[in-house]
Write a structure and sequence with these properties.
Helices cover about 20% and strands about 35% of the residues. The chain is an alpha+beta fold and about 200 residues long. It has a single domain (about 35-195), classed as 2,3-Dihydroxybiphenyl 1,2-Dioxygenase, domain 1 (Roll). The strands form two sheets. It has an eleven-stranded mixed beta sheet with strand order 6-5-10-11-12-9-3-8-7-4-13. Strands 1-2 form a two-stranded antiparallel ribbon.
Length: about 200
């Protein structure tokens, strides 16, 4: 999120001033809700050229899969039932997971992001250790950070919150059982580079 240094005003991605009254307290309250950053998520138009760039920079290998019905269920966009699908690539840098998302069919916040911001960072996935997802949803609603999109992939539920006014990006929270095992990918990139880091 850029800053107008001459007038000390924080600007959003459209270079419009962000209302900062009470933001310091809100950021402190958000810090109490989340434990750490688990993932950095980017939206791209095509996975393959993006993965190629990242592998050249030393980031990889990539687990590549398709999120689509019937495995992808319970999809909602701003509270309304929808059907969407996407291709996803996952890699680790240290303990932090990187995610590349290529939207496919149906309306989604991924398509909206591409139209408004192009290929760029879309969200951070924040770990929640001390609160249930329902408790977190109520707390973020009180901070004017509503749920914008959600779904369930196998036994793993994902929820996106509109935290752009506070963080400059969306926030994602994932809720999966302790014994959840990520399904086998469509393929690994580069080929043959399977790693055990993707079990969750």
């Amino acid at each position: 999120m850029p800053v107008d240094r001459q007038h000390a005003v924080i600007l959003d991605h459209k270079n419009k001033p962000v209302e900062m009254a009470g933001c310091a307290k809100e950021e402190e309250r958000m810090h109490e809700l989340f434990s750490e950053v688990d993932q950095i998520g980017l939206v791209v138009r095509q996975l393959e050229p993006a993965m190629e760039r990242y592998v050249a920079a030393g980031i990889g290998p990539w687990w590549v899969g398709t999120y689509a019905p019937p495995r992808l269920t319970d999809m909602k966009l701003r509270g309304k039932d929808v059907r969407f699908s996407m291709r996803v690539a996952l890699a680790f840098v240290g303990r932090t997971q990187w995610e590349l998302i290529q939207p496919l069919e149906g309306p989604s916040i991924y398509w909206e992001h591409l139209e408004e911001r192009g290929e760029s960072i879309h969200h951070v996935q924040l770990a929640v250790r001390r609160h249930s997802l329902d408790e977190l949803t109520r707390s973020l609603a009180a901070l004017n950070c509503p749920v914008v999109m959600e779904g369930r992939f196998g036994g793993s539920r994902f929820v996106y919150f509109d935290t752009t006014a506070l963080l400059g990006v969306m926030a994602e929270v994932r809720d999966a059982p302790a014994d959840y095992v990520r399904p086998e990918p469509d393929f690994w990139y580069p080929e043959g580079a399977e790693t055990a880091a993707f079990r969750r």
